[in-house]
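A protein record in our archive is deliberately plain, so that people and models can read it alike. The record that follows is passed on verbatim for readers who wish to inspect the format.
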Amino acid sequence: MTYHLKNITAKYAHEKRVIVKNIINTPGDIIPDHENQTLTISLYSLATPKLNEYAKQLCAIINESKTKYPGTNLTLIYEMAT
């Protein structure tokens, strides 16, 4: 994930790792939708608006990959909870 931060954030690798760690440790909801074959991961707000913006950008990058949850036909969708 730090690779994707190269164009959107901090200059130093340790800052990128801290950002990713904050995002990974963020609580959220997992919402399956079998009708639309999606599994939405809705992350709760992070500590600062800057971190929220980085998380939104990473969600968009990850969503572009249209990754399937292993062992299912459910496409993962990452979003920030409102």
Summary: The chain has a mean pLDDT of 85. The radius of gyration is 13 Å. The beta strands are 28-33, 38-43, 75-80. The chain has one domain: 2-80.
